[in-house]
Design goal:
- By secondary structure, the protein is an alpha/beta fold.
- The protein has two domains: about 80 residues, Alanine racemase (TIM Barrel, Alpha-Beta Barrel); about 80 residues, Lyase, Ornithine Decarboxylase, Chain A, domain 1 (Beta Barrel).
- The protein contains four helices and seven strands; from the N terminus they run E-H-E-H-E-H-E-E-H-E-E.
- Helix 1 runs parallel beside helix 2.
- Keywords: Lyase, Pyridoxal phosphate.
């Protein structure tokens, strides 16, 4: 018996973990005052999926907070870092079924340019629902290499005509 929390997917503020652990300590103490002895703290999820320095910052804050608020080794501490482990475990390949070129100007030189809108066979209402619900940032890259191709301002869209079905808002891609 104990406390479980989840700071929310895509939590951008590592200090939220410290506050949640501090609040958990208050709940443990309140339960003890009522005669209950909690022995489990579940740190939940919300950890980033990208393997970058932010996970190290989060781990440091969590470890510090656990030392401050839960120094008793009899409290069993678990976490649910699912996204951290599986985010890079797969690559989703999609087909580009339509391309729309939109005349525009280069933002730096103001020279005429083209923004390419690539429409793929999957979108935010399918495999890319993490864009809508978990605030994930998808990286689109061609399976085939285009080593000598100029990169163009591009966006990637799902198969519907819904304006929300945008998988990648802005990226640089070769003309496909």
């Amino acid at each position: 018996v104990g406390v479980s929390f989840h700071v929310g997917s895509g939590c951008g503020d590592p200090e939220v973990f410290r506050r949640a652990i501090a609040t958990s300590r208050q709940i443990f103490d309140f339960a003890e005052s009522l005669g209950y002895h909690f022995n489990l703290l579940d740190l939940g999820g919300g950890y980033p999926g990208q393997h970058d320095s932010s996970i190290l910052e989060i781990a440091g804050i969590i470890n510090s907070a656990l030392e401050d608020y839960f120094p008793d080794p009899s409290v069993h501490i678990i976490a649910e870092p699912g996204r951290y482990y599986v985010c890079s475990a797969y690559t989703l390949a999609c087909n580009v079924h339509s391309i729309r070129g939109v005349a525009t100007k280069d933002p730096v030189t103001e020279a005429p340019s083209t923004h390419y809108m690539y429409y793929i066979n999957d979108g935010v209402y399918g495999s890319f629902n993490c864009v809508l619900y978990d605030h994930q940032h998808v990286v689109g890259q061609p399976l085939k290499e285009y080593p000598h191709s100029k990169l163009h301002s591009s966006s990637i869209w799902g198969p519907t005509c819904d304006g929300l079905d945008q998988v990648v808002e802005e990226t640089l891609l070769p003309e496909l």
